[in-house]
Amino acid sequence: MSSETDAQIERAREVMARISGGRLDDAPRRPRRPGTAGRRLKRIAAADAAILLAAVVYGAAVAPLGILGVALVVLLVFAATLALAVWPQERAPRVEALRVADVKVLPAQTGRWLDAQRPLLPAPAVRIADQIANRLDILSPQLVGVASDGPEAAELRKLVGEQLPALVGDYARVPAPLRTQARNGRTPDAELTEGLRLIEQEIGDLSGRLAAGDLDQLQTRGRFLELKYRDGTEGR
Question: What is the rounded CA–CA span in Å between residue 88 and residue 197?
């Protein structure tokens, strides 16, 4: 019985391997960053939850809802869901806006712009674009104390306000049938993916440099506490 069960498990693994393109490794996959549809679903869930919470509070604190009240709540939930589902999508910022945007809102605007470019990008480039967006999400709170006219702001604006749109724009002008044909040993798809990878790495380096001061301060404070309290305790 045990050997038969093992054989069935092995056959199931083979089927799953064929379905997933042979990827049955145990390494965790990077979660995809939610795009416009994901944000829309979050807004719908938040609105529906707010309506239901208000109904519960009213029923508990003011008066029971009754059949008509429950029907009204259901109608409000349906109306809110429908309205948010068909509401016009938030338009992606123009490239010109990225070049002059305040550094504190630049990561969010660049993320929206990247979301709008997803249908244009090949699959490997989409994965790198998601990583860029994740890098920008991490970088965004680090920019609170960065001066808009400082060197870090200029570097970020140059990177994601000029280089990134220029790279994607150059790729978009290549006719679709030629994007998978090698030229000088590399296809346009590969050129785009590699360029996006370099931009992702540069954003990561910038984030690391901005965090260096905080890390140094944290380490210094930790050493101070050790000297003041641990050594003092041991000396008692």
Answer: 32
